[in-house]
Amino acid sequence: METHTLDASLEPLGRLATKAAVFLMGKHRPDFQKHAKHPVRVVISQSDRLLLTGRKWRSKAYYRHSGYIGHLRKFSAGEMRERDSRLIVRQAVLGMLPKNKLRRELSRRLMIYKREASK
C-alpha cells in the first residue's frame, strides 16, 4: 500500500486538505478511475501546529447538532483546536471527498496524528 505523509505545520489547512483528498482518491496515479479504490494511505502529522491564515482561529465556525430543538452548538476553530485539532483536519478532508459509497472507505485510509507521526 502506497503511503503519503503530509505535515500540517507546513501549509494552510485548505491546501493540506486538497492534497490529502487528491491522494486518497488516487487522482495522482496514472491508472485513476473515479469508481475504483486505490491502495493509498495518507498520514497527516502535527495537527496541533495547524496553520490558519487571518482571523480564522476566532471567526471560523464549526457546528454540531444533537437532533433536539435548540441544541445547535457553535465552536470557533480555536475552541476546536483545544478540544481536538484532528477534528478540524478530518472535517476539511472529508468535505473534499466525493459524497458517494467510497467516502467511508477513503476516510478509513486517512490517519491524523497530533504530534510527529511514528514510523
Structure description:
By secondary structure, the chain is an alpha/beta fold. The chain is 36% helix and 21% strand. The protein has four helices and five strands. It has a three-stranded parallel beta sheet with strand order 1-2-5. The protein has a two-stranded antiparallel ribbon with strand order 3-4. Strand 1, helix 1 and strand 2 (40-45) form a beta-alpha-beta unit. It is globular and about 45 Å long. The two termini are 15 Å apart. The model has no long low-confidence stretch (mean pLDDT 94).
In short, what is this structure?
With 119 residues, the protein is an alpha/beta fold. It is built from 4 helices and 5 strands, in the order E-H-E-H-E-E-H-H-E.
Write out key terms for the chains shown.
single chain, two-stranded antiparallel sheet, globular, three-stranded parallel beta sheet, alpha/beta, 5 strands
Helix-strand layout with pairing:
Elements: E1 2-7, H1 13-25, E2 40-45, H2 56-59, E3 61-65, E4 72-76, H3 77-95, H4 102-108, E5 110-112
Parallel strand pairs: 1-2, 2-5
Antiparallel strand pairs: 3-4
